[in-house]
Amino acid sequence: MGGRRWIAAPIAIAVVATLAACAPAVPETVVQGTEITAGWTGELTSLNAAAAPTPGNIDIAQAVRADFGDVVDGEFVPDEGFGTVSIVSDDPFTVRYDLAEPVWSDGIPLDAADLLLGWAGAAGEFATDDAVVASDPAAPEVTKVDEFARSIEVTYAQPVIDWQQRVTVPVPAHIVGQRGLDIDDPMEAKQAVIRAVQSGDAGDLASLAKIWNDGFTVDDPSELSADLLLSSGPFRIEKVGDEGDSVTLVPNGEFRGPVTPQVARVRLAPPGDDPIAAIGDTLDVAQVRPTAENREPIRELERQDYTVDTSHDGTVWAVLVNPVGAFTQQPARTAFFHSIPASALIAGGAGEWAQSYTGTTSMLSAPGSRAYDIVNEDSGFADSIGSPDGDAGAERELSGVATGAPVCVLYDRTSPFAAGVFAAMVQSAGEAGWSIQDCGTDDLDAALDAGRWDAAIVREAIPQSPAQILARWGTSGKAAAIGATDPARDELVAQLARTADVYEGREVLAQIEASIVRMAVAMPLAVNPRLTIVDKDVTGIAPRTGAVAPLTSSIVQWAVVPK
Predict the structure, then answer these.
(1) Nearest to 457 by CA among 347, 324, 358, 320
(2) Count of beta carbons in the 10 Å neighbourhood of residue 330
(3) Which residue from 406, 413, 505 is spatially nearest to 452, judged by alpha carbons?
(4) How far apart, in whole angstroms, are the C-alpha atoms of residue 200 and residue 417?
(5) Residue 400, number of CB atoms within 10 A of its CB
(6) What is the pLDDT of residues 193-243, one digit of tens each?
(7) What is the maximum span of the chain, computed from C-alpha positions, in angstroms?
(8) Are 290 and 529 in contact (CB under 8 A)?
(9) What is the C-alpha separation between 532 and 40, in angstroms, rounded?
(10) Which of 138-152, 203-217, 239-253, 292-306 has the lowest mean pLDDT?
(11) What is the CATH number of domain 1-41+54-62+216-284+535-563?
(12) What confidence score (pLDDT) does residue 22 get?
């Protein structure tokens, strides 16, 4: 293992795309000769993750792009080494995006041109569908560009909840300007980008849009040129595999963040058929889901002091109830939920992995987040759906539902967890006088849309924005299919979208959750676990919860244990 992670000398290899010839010295923190290989299931299709926000592209962007900060567990965590974001006026709502002194890996500073280009992309200036921009009630306007201070100020039609992350720097403005406007000098290209965006010149914007949308696409890794691989983050791309399913990263010597890389090379490669067996051999890090089959192999690794970290993937398991038939009245729905305790369902679905499934009382926030405590306390879940005290059978009778009432339960037959939850539900609900019918399917989404079910075992993404909440729980969202909508909830979501204060936002989110709890149409069970397995010779792996860059978000902290 040691020979693989510590490389005696650089090996001359034919790389697909490299900046090695012009690369500056690596940061002093880098331990020469060290290497980490991580199992990666992504695919790099574009070097502009803003234009093509696939999971694989976002993974790589997390390593090669610096930013004002990231959203972690639903809240913004700033990176002041890149710059600061601040509200300079409440009326009109104006935000200043102010760079520190970040530099692209070719030595060209990030400045107002990069911010302005990033704003234009976020504001829809390069969108192919004009309706996207026209429908935005909070379309922003750049009201000040300070080239000397490397900042811009953006005024919004109303406050916006995501003001800290509205402006990013996905790609270098000087490269977009050079390629799109046929300008050789990088600083002249920056000025041309500023003029084009500020003037709204249709021709120049169209040329910039072409590069923004298509110029960073990874169609053939062998044709990637060095200027497309520029980095502002802790690492830069050294090599891209032929299929885009592997990426080799090396430290960016121009990176000026407060924490700089320690490892000399990171390989993100397909994990293979058995990533657990590969740990300590061809892989140093791998992420897997817990299954009955891998429980013993992982237990054995734990006994040998390999690190096994449990996080979650940003989804929640829940039981939904269709408010029709026996469930037309809210007391009947509550009585049913009280007959199927979450702990029993989780134990039935998870088996030996039960301790890895963190229970939850929220459909809108994740356990461990700062918002979750407020939502959990204020939603009313604990005193209603989450309070199965007393005789569940008697409660069913009091709700007007006869003994033996059939309940068609929809679930994904191909999911061991869902199948286990169903089996546990049959037992617990049966004891309370319900007659659970097996309505399992191999096509859960289609069956859910058809609506011919009484209850459903589902796994849903925890929403990360007001728009995502509306898509699930709004009047025009999925909840409309079962009549579980509320105009007051729509207004609360709209209020959340206009809430710039994080503390006020938590309070509004709790009110939205409370509106779902009052309807008694959803009983959250647990967040879906993700296991990160780390070799004994590697440290600093801090997997992030959720769906966004769960592994590469901590890449700057990765290190090899000294021999």
Answers:
(1) 320
(2) 16
(3) 406
(4) 53
(5) 13
(6) 999 999 999 999 999 999 999 999 999 998 899 999 999 999 999 999 999
(7) 80
(8) yes
(9) 12
(10) 138-152
(11) 3.40.190
(12) 47
Sheet with 141-146, strands from edge to edge, namely 83-90, 93-99, 151-156, 141-146
Question: Contact at 8 Å (CB) between 35 and 264?
Answer: yes
Return d(Cα 286, Cα 295) in angstroms, integer. 15
Q: What is the mean pLDDT of residues 54-59?
A: 98
Peptide bond into 92 cis (omega under 30): yes
Structure tokens at 44: 């790099």
Amino acid at 201: D
Residue 175: its pLDDT value, please?
A: 98
Which segments within 212-292 are labelled E, that is strand? 235-240, 247-251, 263-269, 285-288
φ/ψ of 549, rounded to 5, equals 45, 60
CA angle, 72 then 368 then 521, to 5°: 100
- Mean pLDDT within 238-256: 96
**Do 357 and 529 meet the contact criterion of CB atoms below 8 Å apart?**
yes
* Cα separation, 39 vs 269, whole angstroms: 5
Residue 3's pLDDT is what?
34
Give, rounded to a whole angstrom, the gap between the first and last alpha carbons of the chain: 11
CA dist., res. 78 & res. 259, Å (int): 14
> For 356-387, how does the pLDDT look when each residue is reduced to its tens digit (9 = 90+)?
999 999 999 999 999 999 999 999 999 999 88
**Domain segments of the chain as ranges:** 1-41+54-62+216-284+535-563, 66-169+172-214, 314-528
Cβ neighbours of residue 221 closer than 8 Å, sequence gap 6 or more:
16, 17, 240, 241, 242, 244
Give the span between the Cα atoms of 64 and 27, in whole angstroms: 15
CATH number attached to the domain at 66-169+172-214: 3.90.76.10
φ, ψ of residue 43 in degrees (nearest 5): -145, 130
> Rounded CA gap, 454 and 373, in Å?
31
Token couple for 91: 């009326």
Domains 66-169+172-214 and 314-528 belong to one CATH topology: no
Rg (CA), the chain: 26
Residues 314-528, CATH architecture: Roll (3.10)
| Residues with Cβ within 8 Å of residue 417, at least 6 apart in sequence | 317, 349, 350
Share of the chain above pLDDT 90, in %: 90
- Residue 178 and residue 192: Cα distance in Å, rounded? 9
Calpha distance 359→552 (Å, rounded): 26
Q: Which two tokens stand for residue 330?
A: 């809210």
CB 249 within 8 A of CB 235: yes
Residue pair 272/536 in contact (Cβ under 8 Å)? The answer is: no
Q: Can you say whether the dihedral through the CA atoms of 44, 47, 50, 51 is positive or negative?
A: negative
The average pLDDT across 489-503 equals 97
Cβ contacts of 405 within 8 Å, gap of 6 or more: 326, 396, 433, 434, 435
* Dihedral over Cα of 48, 52, 53, 59: its sign: negative
Beta bridge partners of 31: 263
Phi-psi region of 535 (alpha: psi -120 to 50; beta: other; left: phi over 0): beta
| Residue linked to tokens 């449990």 | 310
Predicted pLDDT at 24 = 55
